[in-house]
Specification:
The protein has about 575 residues and is α+β, with helices and mostly antiparallel strands. About 40% of the residues lie in helices and about 30% in strands. The chain is built from eleven helices and 24 strands. The protein has helices at about 5-60, 220, 260-275, 305-340, 345-380, 385-415, 425-435, 440-445, 460-480, 525-530, 535-545; strands spanning about 65, 80, 90-100, 105-120, 120-135, 140, 150, 155, 170, 175-180, 190-200, 215, 235-240, 245-250, 280-285, 285-295, 300-305, 420-425, 445-450, 455-460, 485-495, 495-505, 550-555, 560-570. The chain has a ten-stranded mixed sheet with strand order 6-3-11-1-12-14-13-17-16-15, sandwiched between helices. Strands 2, 4, 5, 9 and 10 form a five-stranded antiparallel sheet that branches. The chain has a five-stranded mixed sheet with strand order 19-21-22-24-23. The two termini are about 25 Å apart.
Length: about 575
């Protein structure tokens, strides 16, 4: 396959592959955009579901969980829980009991939950017992009735209306017994109370006062264990603060770990200080999206883990790019295969054209030679007149055309025939070729500015280099502006010999440079048609350049056309 076909096939492959690549990238972009929109819509749905449930539960909490280390204490060390016993169904206490002496068969410790009531003896503190036995981590105390209350060592019963306090106390440990010390205080026993969980009878509103103990719950509390499936797709939780931005409640949502109060306060402070109703916040190694809703005397802050969405989007992008690249490689291979069939008609056409040029040039050579000889005989016998001179002139043009066709035919028939190549000093060859044009330049009133480096050695066909130089100079002489200067240079640049031929040509269009090397091409401007020629010179120059593994191009800027020939030095 010759250079023209290779270039055509390469151009087809590059163009088709770029188009396919762009189409694939657009599809990848659209896919990722749609998935991002889908994830965003899902995120909004999650926030809406949580918001509706949180608003409903805010006025009717069923369960609250308190960390006792956050609770205020009395002088005696009892924990103060600001909730009325009248509203409570039962209380679950969480703690850990242990003993130093591991030989104990059993051991227990306990205290009481105290609150004020109006009894027969007047206002006094009454309580319900709590007891932690060996291996116990939680106990529940029933508040649905008040039949088993104690005041000191006395058991009594009251009704709900007799309770006058809006709080209750979780006492420190009162007693510790074991199989080792069954009747006294066993100091080897340690009971640590961690937290309590309050379960309400009906409904209970969050306190409006500030500095209240922070409550904890989860999605199972506000959704009554029927958690929507959409909440399983992302980690989420929410916080409630009062109008003074003090933390009131933490809903741990579906997180694997409890959000500690100090963490919750930090998150709420960062969000509320930003002054934004929505945004993103970094928590440990995760990123959460948040929204803030102002509800009466409270602020609701909902957090939804965005790391899953971010990771999913990132993974989707990587996978889609990988698949897209694989598809592009597959299609590129297919394009390369198909390109052979695409350029086949062009190759066949070029082959026919090449055959026609070869056959036509050989077939025309004989009759033109006969015509030339015949007209010479006629002129010698009968003398010359304007008719015979016209025939001679046109015969010379035909001979010149045939010569160019034969040269082109030889080059395109044997594009890789480098026999006879040897290392030559092309500086001398180019200089000698330029000498031929000095008289022509003088006659046309044009000047030549030459800049030829000495001793530029190149493995080449010296005659072809001279022919190449002649073609460039002949083209510049014909198409340069009147009384203008033509510049011709030869330099060694790195590993290349570079020739440049420059001339002014105001009657030319830059859009025509891409067609200058086409066979029989003549520019459409009037100036070009005034000059003799067949439009084959630059095609032959291109063929000679390609024979030497070089490149030729034409540039047109500021009414100046420059031909640049780059020949690799071997």
């Amino acid at each position: 396959m010759n250079s023209s076909l290779r270039k055509l096939r390469t151009k087809y492959i590059v163009t088709a592959s770029i188009i396919v690549f762009c189409v694939i990238m657009v599809m990848v972009f659209i896919l990722n955009l749609l998935m991002r929109i889908t994830y965003k819509n899902e995120e909004n749905m999650i926030q809406n579901v949580i918001e509706q449930a949180a608003i409903t539960h805010m006025n009717e909490p069923i369960t609250e969980y308190f960390d006792l280390k956050e609770a205020p204490q009395t002088e005696g060390g009892d924990y103060i829980i600001p909730r009325s016993p009248r509203d409570i169904s039962y209380v679950t206490m969480y703690g850990n009991i242990s003993i130093n002496d591991k030989s104990a068969i059993w051991y227990s410790a306990g205290g009481g939950l105290l609150f004020e009531a109006e009894t027969e003896n007047g206002r006094e503190m009454v309580y319900k017992d709590y007891t932690f036995n060996k291996d116990t981590t939680n106990v529940s105390i029933d508040f649905s009735s008040f039949d088993n209350l104690k005041s000191g060592l006395v058991t009594l019963s009251i009704d709900e209306s007799q309770i006058i306090s809006d709080y209750f106390l979780v006492s420190v440990v009162w007693w510790k017994n074991s199989s080792i010390v069954p009747d006294g205080m066993d100091e080897g026993i340690t009971l640590t109370l961690d937290s309590i969980e309050i379960h309400y009878k009906d409904s209970h509103s969050f306190p409006e006062a500030s500095n209240q103990l922070v409550s904890h719950n989860s999605f199972s509390d506000i959704f009554e264990k029927n958690i929507p499936a959409i909440l399983n797709n992302a980690g989420a939780f929410y916080l409630i603060t009062d109008k003074k931005n003090q933390l009131v409640s933490v809903n741990n949502g579906n997180l694997m770990k409890t959000v500690e109060n100090n963490e919750a306060r930090d998150y709420a402070e960062r969000v509320l200080e930003s002054g934004r109703d929505s945004g993103k916040i970094k928590m440990d190694s995760s990123v959460y999206c948040y929204i803030v809703r102002e509800l009466d005397e409270m602020n609701l802050i909902i957090f939804v883990n965005d790391s899953f969405t971010h990771t999913a989007n990132s993974n989707l992008l990587k996978i889609s790019l990988l698949v897209g690249f694989a598809v592009w490689i597959f299609l590129l291979i297919l394009i390369i295969i198909v390109s052979g069939y695409v350029v086949k008609p062009v190759a066949e056409n070029m082959e026919r054209q090449k055959q026609f040029i070869s056959n036509a040039s050989h077939e025309l050579k004989t009759p033109v030679t006969v015509i030339s000889a015949t007209i010479d005989i006629i002129s010698s016998k009968k003398g010359s007149d304007r008719w015979t001179e016209c025939i001679k002139e046109q015969t010379k043009k035909m001979q010149s055309l045939i010569t160019e066709l034969l040269d082109l035919s030889k080059l395109i028939e044997n594009p890789d025939n480098r026999t006879g190549f040897e290392v030559c000093d092309i500086s001398s060859a180019v200089s000698n070729s330029l000498l031929y044009f000095e008289s022509l330049l003088f006659e046309s009133g044009k000047t030549l500015n030459r800049d030829i480096d000495d001793n530029v050695l190149l493995k080449c066909d010296e005659n072809k280099i001279s022919q190449l130089t002649g073609i460039l100079m002949d083209n510049a002489l014909k198409y340069s502006d009147e009384k203008s200067e033509i510049s011709f240079s030869l330099h060694r640049e790195k590993d290349n010999a570079v020739m440049r031929c420059t001339n002014l040509c105001s009657d030319f269009s830059a859009k025509n440079t891409s067609r200058l090397f086409e066979r029989f091409y003549r520019s459409d401007n009037d100036h070009s048609h005034e000059q003799e020629g067949f439009g084959l010179g630059l095609s032959i120059a291109q063929a000679i350049t390609e024979l030497h593994r070089g490149s030729i191009k034409a540039d047109y800027n500021d009414n100046t056309v420059t031909f640049i020939i780059t020949l690799p030095i071997h």
